[in-house]
Amino acid sequence: MKRVAIFGATGYTGFELIRLLLSHPRVKVSALTSEQYSGLPVNQAFPPFRGRLAGAAFGKMEEMVSAGFDAAFLALPHTVSASVAEKILSRGIPVIDLSADFRFRSIPLYESVYGVRHKSPGLSAKAVYGLPEAHREALRKTRLAAVPGCFPTAVILALYPLLAAGLIDKKGIVADCKTGVSGGGRNPSLGFHYPEVEGGVRPYGLPKHRHNPEMDQELSLAAGEKVSITFVPHLIPMVRGILATCYATLRPKVSAEAVAEAYRKAYAKEPFVRLCPEGVLPSTKDVAGSNFCDIAFRADMKTRRVVAVSAIDNLVKGASGAAVQCFNLMMGFPEEEGLRGAPLFP
Questions:
Q1: 150-313 sits in which CATH class?
Q2: pLDDT score of 43
Q3: Which residues are catalytic?
């Protein structure tokens, strides 16, 4: 039984981590931090889990960083995670970080995208990008996992097989994505406030969303050469979910069967990627509350275009579920532990 700490436990991803880990047979949630709610009783700060967190210590981040635990999940804001991770790793304790602080292989790129100085640049070279479908073996060996952003997870999984197999042109790739408002966090800006969103759809983050370089980094690794995609996110009036619709041009002589074979080869044995059967397209409703990513693809041989569509729950496969998946690999546990729950429906 591993004792785990969750830093930043009262945000949406922190709540989701608690929900998932409470059903994990090899985990005891032993420490929780919240700067805002630290003076409250645990049952009051976490009403959805009333009666389920007996024995868990609850306090401010600085108080809990030296507490007794075997692994730490950091559901902290970007730029805050780095310094906390350094302190925990110095104790020999593995860290699963849900911020962007260790996702970038290039420190200058991170600093350019987020507009800050990196607080622990030396650790970045030791971090493994937390997408098991691409980096499973490296995650088994690391002490620091950098869980991907929600949009990158959906887009990378949709396009990875096509680029890895060399089936599409590297230029002209477009990812058009829709997301629910929970992606803005528990204390969102006015633009993510539900009364402002309900009844409308709007793009945001143009001309360059900060998740774009993260996608380019991983898709370039898949292709073996530089890839730069056009990414446009849209906010829609729902709470959870991301739908990514990705467009690319097939290379000459690439057949529809070659496309299908690339996806089968990439994902046939993946526990959390489901290829939709013929005639079915992904829906965010079909993955809500689960760690699944549903994918479908269509090749139009007349226009030489291929469209790949993926759907995830942004708080699970797009954040906390992926973190638990990484944790399982790092601990040597079965990858599906704590993640076997079916989607919520309706």
A1: alpha beta
A2: 84
A3: 150
